[in-house]
Amino acid sequence: MLSLFFHFKFRVVRQKDSAAPRGGRGLALRRQHQGRPPLASPHLTSPHPQLHHRLTAATPHSRRRHGRLAMSSGGTKSTSSPPPPSPSSSLWLAPNPSKRWGELFFLFYTPFWLTLALGIVVPYKLYESFTELEYLLLGLVSAVPAFLIPMVVVGQVCLLTFLMDLHASLWIIIFSYVGNYFWTHYFFTVLGASYTFPSWKMNNVPHTTFLLTHVCFLFYHVTSNMTLRRLRHAIADLPEKVRWVTEAAWILALSYFIAYLETLAISNFPYYEFVDRASMYTVGSLFYAIYFIVSFPMFLRIDEKPGSPWDLPRVAVDALGAAMLVTIILDLWRIFLGPIVPVPNSKQCIQPGLPWFPGHSVEA
């Protein structure tokens, strides 16, 4: 009976260890004959991972012990996790989803007001019958939807997206307001420009230009944002000084191109006049480009970094700072370089003070 019992036990052990290597099976048999429990350690029974899994998965305790051992062994899985995916796969659009939505909206809104102003009113000369009211309505129809649509459509769904659209609009409102209220007088005294269409005015500047400038500048600055992002990705591996020079050269070129393009686009509107259009296209466009040389890199910074949102006071202060810097540069041009063409009372251009003070203004 005793021999039959050991013979039966020997067959059971052989069946259990049939997948194990020879050395591991012999060790299990010896421990079984000695009345000792078999070893569950994979280092003593088998180096194969399949057998290791079978042995350690026998009990919950062994599974927990194996898990602690694997965590403490410093495996490559736990230390070499792939980097998180980028929020934006595009090299042109903002990494911040809310800012990206706003930029795309302003970009796709541009054909509406551009077609209305330069595709309908100017080519068909509808302005010939316009009074002060029609000019004001043209500005309102062009500019107000750019502010209201994000408020109505997006503001009810995503407050963060609406706030980022509001940041962009507020920055441009402040910057373009300063540009119209103050810098337009540099166009009068330095570039020899004048407005002759009927309009209600503030500080001798038509209200319509305040409104149209807002949507124009939104389009310009969104375009600048996209090109600057693409450029930064393209030159990311270059030395820092080379990147800085390349970006500065691009901002200068883009600013001049946009200023020149706007001057050329409104050349068919006869009631925005210049003493010398050729000089305005070449030198005057460089003067106008000063606006964007300052504003393009500063506008890009708004809500650009995910997780670092701006608030309205910061947006307002940033826009006012950019406007002040442009004002200083324009006035230095007025004092040291003077007008680009002979204008009435041109001697007043180099007088102390500012061009919108009494005695400096040229009637538009």
TrEMBL record:
The chain crosses the membrane at residues 104-124, 136-163, 170-188, 208-228, 249-272, 278-300, 312-336. InterPro entries: Cycloeucalenol_cycloisomerase. Residues 17-91 are annotated as: Disordered. Keywords: Membrane, Transmembrane, Transmembrane helix. This is Cycloeucalenol cycloisomerase. Residues 50-68 have a biased composition (Basic residues). Signal peptide: none annotated.
